[in-house]
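Progress report, Aim 2. The chain analyzed during this reporting quarter is listed below.
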Amino acid sequence: MASLQDIRRRITSVRNTRKITKALELVAGARLRRAQTRIEEMRPYADRMQELMTGTARAAASFRNLALMQRREVRRVAVLVVTGDRGLAGPFNGQVLRRAFELERAERAEGHDIAWLVTGRKGASTLRFRRYELAANWAGFADKPTYADAQAISHRLAELYSAEEVDRVVLVYNRYVSPLVQRVTTTDLLPIPEEVLGGERDDDAAKAKRGDFIYEPEPEEILQRLLPVYLETEIYRALLESAASFLAAQMTAMRNASKNAAELIENLTLAMNRARQAEITQEILEVVAGADALAG
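Predicted structure tokens for the chain:
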């Protein structure tokens, strides 16, 4: 059985830990409110961008000159995994990596090679530990990304796809739903998905759609300018969603840790009181025994 002094040391240690977890919970909660505001402001912009892409694509006569829209036989798939720079966030990093590895197994079963790209130190360290070669990785902005970060990632993906080093690009990230719910989401980035282009093409419908508007310059040229911006917007949206998800997961994890620490302190305090009572009882018995010995 642990001594009274050992129990007191453990209580002090747990109390110090609870102070840290409580502080992290409060910091994550404050930052989450700002991150939530950013993603709520970003979502309508991303939705309007997709609508603009759809309308322009329907009016375009041909996509043959647009590298990011060209579809070809898939031999190599690029998987972009969005993780955090730090831990202490519950299952945040683990669940997105788990989904990425499931995607890898499915693609390899179809005979496709995998090119790994990752944002966040936790994802990069996990992939390196598994001996995976990284085509690119970025870190340092997981919980507060900027549009410039999304541009850097977008340019690298566009380079890989345009050079035919990869034939498909898939994004895996945590989508923010609420402080308690973050959903792992898989999205095709390149080639641009059919639903963004307005579904299957119909040349007659495209001509009719084009007849309703006067395009200056031509829809194909507008689309060529929109494509990089659309890609940057989708990546920036995913980064913001992931940042909010990370802060929400960290806040929840630290709240649970603080709650568990409080319960542990309560149990240790009870054990300390019992140990102290046992010591007092033992001292009383020794005094009584000594008095009996003297009386005898």
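The chain has six helices and five strands. The domain at 28-251 is CATH 3.40.1380.10 (Pyruvate Kinase; Chain: A, domain 1). These observations will guide the mutagenesis work planned for the next reporting period.
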